[in-house]
């Protein structure tokens, strides 16, 4: 296919003419930028693995089985201070109680925002309020909690001496902590519901189902993976909080029950969780038992890891079952 | 590069470009109802790219099987064939976009002006061989910035405001879009109509001042009116850049192509001038496809 | 629908209405609780603000001694003392949050770009879950690491005896410092920001990136100019999240910042970075035991009110910044 000499090509077909921009393709600036991204990426890997490996090593070094079954005690040496049975139980207790409030509440708010959302101003306000809760420091929530739970009307939820309400109990801490988890749960519920295409709802309405029935029977089961993911992440956030525990649970070493009813007395009393246990056993805390702090940090990290992996697995399973 | 294109040779009976379409693209209409938008190639064309024995596989799935064909400036080459026949893959391999898919493997050779494209820096290659996609994909910026982005990125140093302004207008005019957007170049590109968006994408591809223009079903997402405008544009462009267009619209191929390559299941079944492929196909499969028997 | 008896139709609609009402009431209840929180916090904070006026935000005297005086005045049933000049605490918060967010933003952006676009597949597969894990590690664990690793390192290796002696009459340098706080806080909020950034960058439509690559613009410029640009609203959201976490972080900062009501002085040269301080949130935490003293309570609530106001302003600012980005179809 040789072209005749009279080819009306407006530009020279010689390959050497326009080589100028080959050199401009990757300017020095771009190379430096890319190099910087690699550098920071590798640095991040290094820091990350340093943190994780350091915590694992320290944890494995100090974790003993008996720590899980021994009550903590005050003391000055490794041998006197016991284990972290109470904080461990307290962690689960406060986490479950907080999620017991946050999950139904978050479901309700998420469903309302996604499926009803009328009147519109209320919906907008609810959205920004949830956003605001997410941005509110937990220490501020904790202070607000003291106002609420120190009021005499709620005295039955904590210890009170001569009309003076302490306002520190599992009830108080869990209630306020539920607000910490609430934005996560609401976001997950909404995400799950919004991923369901409109025709699924229409199909249900078309066979005469009400909105309420559709939501309960069709939408929520379909959104279940998202809800579970949100619940797990919320649980992780709750058990990772320290400020609210310090202020509203008292951060005592052992459970200090109020009254004589078996379970209720614990819930009305003060206690601690793994986070406050770490806080107190750090060199800056009252206990100053770094070995115990490392062991507890290891256990807490493992808990968070399990929750994360769980959320990942559930989330992936949910994605596999999507409408196309 | 010279921007005002040479006058397009047309048959007297062709409708003027951009006017109402008497019998332009009618989906499903028999082929002989479609009119050639331009005269067949006079053969005054220069070889630009050469595809030699190219095979491309995604993982173990062979998408393109030992294809060889020339790509010439001054002619429009249309790749036709049923969906999944490998024509888009072949097109994407011409500026090494297939490399973005990590599973893709490439065999054979493609040359641009005699130089093996795998030896060229991909970025440098893609400046000379630009591509327009099936779905209009203007960047989320203003009309002006869409063009200016390409100009700015390709200039050795930051172009002056006035020069940039002039060049953007030139490019938009080249793609026949200037009249429609001139009043507001700050208009968000994503709020243009589909046809305008696609012409903006063509303008963007031309702003790169390419030597070869690849079009991947550029009209499949557009209405007939916009399709006609773009087809006229493509025909106008063929003297300045080598144009390769993938289409599964046979009327379109017939209207604008000088040469047609028919691909089926990754193989190049037939390659020839448009009149030959549509008028007197040599292969049985081509005959069946062209007459609408399958695909 | 005509065939449905009126009573049943009513029941159907009734159950929907009931559900909507109940859910709406719950939402309204939550709104009410938050509104109550705003009102209560500012009401409790008012005495402190009204006594000090704008001097509340100013400097003057030792803030730690002022806190001491406020606490004891409540205890002894004397006339309550409210004098409080929070500048050292505000300055500490600004410094620690600002520096940490600045460093974290830049490095998170690069790391996120690296993870999404340039990292090898195997590395990406490892990094992404790890980022999410680090983002959910409780802050007390970071605090522990800070106290046991970073602080001793700074105290033993970065501060010379000479510099310790040079400021010994004002403040003691022991490693609990601005530097430790910023380093740990950066490491703490960076994964949070990276996780958000990665999600946003990944959501950038491939077609836009391909469109740019197909015009011969290299991967770096393409990703920077199209990808990052498109994801700007997400960058804002992630940054807001990071700032909120930094602002409200009490535990970790109480552990590593030194917990001294001291305003680090940039005029001190390099020593500036190893001077101790104490941000607002940590101040609340450390004095929470003293809530029973009314003037102390009002003072702590005033600090909480400042934090609450900053958090609200922060999310409002984020919203404002995102508005103009919507015009060109950039997704939020």
Features:
heterotrimer; A: 324 residues; mainly alpha; MetI-like fold; two-stranded antiparallel sheet; 12 helices; 2 strands; B: 295 residues; alpha/beta; Rossmann fold
Description:
- The complex is a heterotrimer of chains A (324), B (295) and C (332).
- By secondary structure, chain A is an all-alpha fold.
- Chain A has a single domain, classed as MetI-like (MetI-like fold, Orthogonal Bundle).
- Chain A has helices spanning 28-62, 85-116, 120-135, 138-149, 170-194, 198-206, 211-222, 224-240, 243-248, 262-268, 274-281, 290-320, and strands at residues 160-161, 164-165.
- A two-stranded antiparallel ribbon of chain A has the order 1-2.
- In chain A, a hairpin with a 2-residue loop joins strand 1 and strand 2.
- Chain A is globular.
- Residues 1-23 of chain A have low confidence and may be disordered.
- Chain B has 295 residues and is α/β, with parallel strands linked by helices.
- Chain C is mainly alpha-helical.
- Chain C is built from 13 helices and no strands.
- In chain C, helix 7 (178-202) runs antiparallel to helix 10.
- The two termini of chain C are 41 Å apart.
- Classes of the chains: A mainly alpha (324), B alpha/beta (295), C mainly alpha (332).
- At the A-C interface, helix 1, helix 2, helix 3, helix 4 and helix 7 of A face helix 1, helix 3, helix 4, helix 5 and helix 7 of C.
In short:
With 324 residues, chain A is mostly helical. Chain A contains 12 helices and 2 strands, in the order H-H-H-H-E-E-H-H-H-H-H-H-H-H. Chain B has 10 helices and 10 strands.
Percent of residues in beta strands of chain A: under 5%
The helix/strand class of chain B is alpha/beta
H/I helix tally of chain B: 10
Largest sheet of chain A at a glance? Answer: 2 strands, antiparallel
- Cα shape of chain B: globular
The general outline of chain A is globular
* The CATH fourth-level homologous superfamily of chain A: MetI-like
Query: Total helix count of chain A?
Result: 12
Mean pLDDT level of chain A: 85
Count of DSSP strands of chain A: 2
User: How large, in whole angstroms, is the Cα Rg of chain B?
Assistant: 19 Å
**Oligomer designation:** heterotrimer
